[in-house]
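Slide 14.
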Amino acid sequence: MWSKFSVSQSPAGTYLEEAHRWLDECVQNHEKCKSTQTRLPTRIIDVGSSDGSRDPYLFIPSADLHARSSSPKGQECYVSTRYVALSYCWGEGLPLKTTTTNILDLQKGIPWDTIPSTIQDAITITRKFDIRYLWVDALCIIQDLTEDWEAQCTRMSEVYGGSFFTIAAALSPNVDFGIPRRRPRLPVRTYNDSTTRIDSTHDGDPLYKRGWAVQERILSQRVLVFASNQMFWECQSVRPSENGSIIHVFHPRIKDEDFYFSNPTLWHQIVNEYSCRDLTFEGDKLPAIAGIARRIQHVLKDDYLAGCWKNTMILDLLWYRAYDSRINILTAYRAPSWSWACHDGEVLYYPFTDLTTCSKLLRYHIDVAGSDLMGQLLGGYIELFGPLIIAHMNSGYWIFDRFSQKVGGAHWDINERDSNGEVTLLPQGKLAKQGKLWLLLLAASEIRGLGLILLRNSSPDGATFKRIGTFQSFTEKPFLGYKGLEKNTIKEWVAWFSSQENKSVVIV
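Slide 15: predicted structure.
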């Protein structure tokens, strides 16, 4: 049976002893997990003494530095900058949060009985590890000040990346639920897995249905997970759990410049994982993954363009929506049509290891809504140069060129399948069926070709295009369950398509 701990019912001496062992092993023996001392975030909770004799309070290092540094007691705050971060679900509302009207009161003290259960339990855990500071977004970001929210969002990479470890309240569906615990009696198993991948062991828990939690987990160098079945420890080296199982190198983490992202596969994995999660506010689609993007940019020195990267743009455009993912009509602009971020629902990528690119990026422009280049957007375009043909369609799947030769199969960005598995054309798909399509070949191999399906915008100059899907072409040998092209070989098809006039297209 699940139980919750509190200050009066200390978990010390029980299951947290195991967590202490995991932390000690990581700090002392894991070369991959060696970390340097970091500075405290802009605001942080001082959790007070371990016996709970003093209420926590909101500590602002920059404001207190001058006043405190002159006394030995004040200097104690700066001897160690270790702090813990909390990853959790807010739920339908948050009774306690920092605002412009209460921030001064919270600096004086946060009454214990006003703190929601999940944050209370996180404070207790932090105290039991003899760590003085805890970062919680609801209390460390001024929630009614847009400028502060934007500024702190740009620091998420530093906040979670700099935490000594992160507490993940995976099982808790809301902030009032608390952090439950139990010690299951499960068989001991050991795994050795050197494959880099996104782990999904406890993705059914409420926290791992939350979009923001993806970067909170990946950016953190260590995570103590309170999951539905047991407690886990996650770091750069291993993932031990209460039942004794250990998985080595189980989860990609962004720590330093030794972790290279030159292969876009890992970014595509992160986007796929993130796209399956929920966001309360649709405008958070890019901000909620910006921390990861910022760390990757620090390593690659590449330009980040609405969820894609300049140096791998052609491969990053080879995304498509899963047919069974949800269809949400956005109420406001969020991203250009060529970006996966303009849609909700699961995003997948075509395999690209065998492909040679056939198009190139000429120029680009992104209009940001605020000061963060990785945050919310107002607009943007890319200009590509490659083989372009006019085509048409007469069904929900096959596309034909102007001579009625079959060119490839369509994968529509905003269409869905009905109960019989047939493609249901939504408005853009119906428009595509009625009018001309433009096909831009992005990449090809010996067995297939891939590209974008474009519609010309109805602007006065008609000079821009909008992405409405992707197409794939393959030989007459059945591929993914479909009969292939009428061309003899894909090599001939690529030669034919590539011989078409190369043109530049601006996609918005």
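Speaker note: The CA atoms of residues 13 and 413 lie 54 Å apart.
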